Amino acid sequence: MHILLVEDDDRVAAALRPALHRHGMTTTRLARGRGAAEQLRGVDVVLLDLGLPDVDGLDVCRAIRAVSEVPIIVVSARGEVDDRILGLHSGADDYLVKPYDIGELVARIHAVYRRRGGTGGAPGSGAAGTVVIDGVHVDLDRHTVTVDGRDVALTRKEFQVLALLASVNGAVCPRSRIVAEVWGRSWPGANRTLDVHVATLRTKLGRTDLVQTVRGIGYRLDRPGPRSPDRG
């Protein structure tokens, strides 16, 4: 996923760009707002600061929305309700007030991308089809799982974890992204809770090697198969 970061503060950009890269995203950074609407080729999501040195960020938001349906997240220190309402009315898909948690930002990026019809996929993304891996069929539309033709009952959270891993086509999914997207927040025991859900998944699926641990990063599914069209 490629992010256009419109941010004039060098320190903020210097901290944010490597954090996004660790979550598998590439970035282009603009320190000014003028001309941002002409820099959208190949961009999946725009992160837009409002306090730009050359033009008001709301005008940039309107200019982008006039020419593109690319998802826009306003990331600003302006936190009053009126500011957020104005940002959304100006065409933003979401509004996040600084300072923020990077896990929450990443979750919001994926959420707006899915809502705009992106293929970055995760639970609820609307991506049709079934992911098939080593006899495990994960139906992303019907929220069902079968193993060698046998129905497997998963809890809602267990399915969301599995569906998120299945939908990224074998890529490593960082712990912070899984926690943010499945639970919607992070807390001191979040990693332990995730580990327990993964352990339960392995047991229920009867495939101890299917969910691979990538030490220090997160999880991935082993040997992902092609996604077949939904025939239902």
Descriptive key words:
single chain, 232 residues, alpha/beta, 5-stranded antiparallel beta sheet, 7 helices, 13 strands, 21% strand, disordered C terminus, OmpR/PhoB-type_DNA-bd, DNA-binding, phosphoprotein, transcription regulation, Sig_transdc_resp-reg_receiver
Structure annotation, total helices = 7
Helix vs. strand class = alpha/beta
Runs with pLDDT <50, length 5+? 119-128, 224-232
How much beta, percentage-wise?
Answer: 15-25%
> What distance separates the N and C termini?
30 Å
Order of helices and strands: EHEEHEHEHEEEEHEHHEEE
Q: What's the pLDDT, averaged over the residues?
A: 84
DNA-binding region: 128-223
Modified residues (4-aspartylphosphate): 49
Pfam family, one: Trans_reg_C
Protein name: Sensory transduction protein RegX3
Quick rundown:
This protein has 232 residues and is of the alpha/beta class. Helices cover 36% and strands 21% of the residues. The protein is built from 7 helices and 13 strands.
Strand and helix layout:
Layout: E1 2-6, H1 10-22, E2 26-30, E3 45-48, H2 57-67, E4 72-76, H3 81-89, E5 94-97, H4 102-115, E6 130-133, E7 136-139, E8 144-147, E9 150-151, H5 156-167, E10 173-174, H6 175-183, H7 190-205, E11 211-214, E12 218-221, E13 227-228
Parallel strand pairs: 1-2, 1-3, 3-4, 4-5
Antiparallel strand pairs: 6-7, 6-13, 7-8, 8-9, 10-12, 11-12
Explain what the structure shows:
The protein has 232 residues and is of the alpha/beta class. It contains 7 helices and 13 strands. Helix 4 (102-115) crosses helix 6 and helix 5 crosses helix 7 (190-205). The longest helix has 16 residues, at 190-205. The radius of gyration is 19 Å and the shape is elongated. It starts with a strand and ends with a strand.
